[in-house]
Design brief:
Layout: H1 11-22, E1 28-32, H2 36-51, H3 64-71, E2 77-80, H4 89-99, E3 109-113, H5 121-132, E4 138-144, H6 152-157, E5 159-162, H7 172-187, H8 191-201, H9 206-227, H10 240-249, H11 252-270, H12 275-291
Parallel strand pairs: 1-4, 1-5, 2-3, 3-4
Helix pairs in contact: 2-3, 4-5, 7-8, 7-9, 7-10, 8-12, 9-10, 9-11, 11-12
The structure holds zinc ion.
Zinc ion binds next to helix 3.
């Protein structure tokens, strides 16, 4: 049965995705991680969740849509998997043409592009507009073992989620407990306390920091929704108090600037940025983006 419960580890990511599926799910998602087989399971579960007919937890695993997705026979789910072959511009054109036709079964269509880092630059450019302004029914899930190989313009149009080897992730509770003092310090405009909290984030193994930065981005997204009074179930309910406080102190456009900055920081951490540089980024750079 197709379900998030079948996937190992990554509790924080699981929580973020399930909460996102309960609301207005982003139409373009980039799922990255080292493990191609792991990415396959996650992308399929996510696709089933987008297509699922249940009003409750999605994917439910039981409705006709979930069963078709699990059997690989859903007419509104296209999975592109060319292994490590180059993905060329004619593929991008084919995707565009397919998406011009309304879905068969339900209100949505999902295109999964596996090994998206193999899209050549011409194909990526051809997909840009489709990713930016897809028809209301069209959803994209790109998976990539080397997300840095994608053009920045493509990456920035996708909501990014990073998958980690299960044994190296911080649990959702751990990440929230570590981030709560940091977010509270930002909301209180206390750079000194931000520094202490940022130092505490550096303690877990390096890989876990990537997950924590992912939870931080989810919390920033919650704060933007709170600041704009948009009804949306929070991605990180455990940090709801801190995100509301943040929404009261920092204007939404600045929160979005911090969100983008955390994207860059994630890339730097993935490339083994020095701990001191990360602490500095989370302290003086974030302070400047919020308040100066
Ligand atoms: Zn279902």
């Amino acid at each position: 049965m197709i379900s998030f419960d079948q996937l190992p580890g990554n509790a924080a990511l699981k929580n973020s995705l399930q909460n996102a599926l309960a609301g207005r799910f982003p139409q373009a998602v980039l799922l990255s991680g080292d493990d191609a087989a792991g990415l396959e399971g996650w992308s399929l579960t996510l696709a089933a969740g987008i297509l699922c007919e249940s009003a409750g937890r999605r994917p439910c695993g039981a409705c006709l849509s979930c069963r078709k997705a699990a059997q690989g026979v859903h007419p509104d789910l296209t999975v592109i998997d060319e292994g490590e072959n180059e993905l060329k511009v004619d593929l991008a054109r084919r995707i565009k043409a397919e998406n011009a036709i309304i879905p068969n079964d339900g209100p949505r269509r999902v295109t999964v592009i596996r090994h998206a880092h193999n899209l050549n630059p011409m194909a990526q450019n051809a997909l840009l507009k489709e990713l930016e302004e897809p028809p209301a029914y069209a959803f994209f899930i790109l998976t990539a073992e080397q997300p840095d190989a994608l053009l920045q313009t493509v990456r920035s149009r996708c909501t990014r989620f990073a998958l980690e080897p299960p044994q190296q992730t911080a649990s959702d509770e751990e990440a929230a407990a570590l981030l709560a003092p940091y977010l509270a310090a930002v909301a209180a405009r206390r750079e000194d306390r931000m520094m202490l909290a940022a130092l505490a984030l550096e303690k877990p193994p390096r890989r876990a920091l990537l997950g924590i930065l992912g939870v931080l981005q989810a919390a920033l997204r919650d704060a933007v929704f709170a600041a704009r009074a948009l009804p949306q179930p929070p991605l990180q309910p455990a940090l709801a108090e801190q995100t509301r406080a943040l929404a009261r102190t920092v204007p939404p456009e600045r929160l979005l600037a911090v969100y983008d900055f955390i994207d860059e920081l994630t890339d730097r951490v993935a490339r083994n940025a020095a701990a001191a540089a990360v602490t500095c980024a989370l302290t003086s750079d974030v302070y400047r983006l919020c308040f100066q």
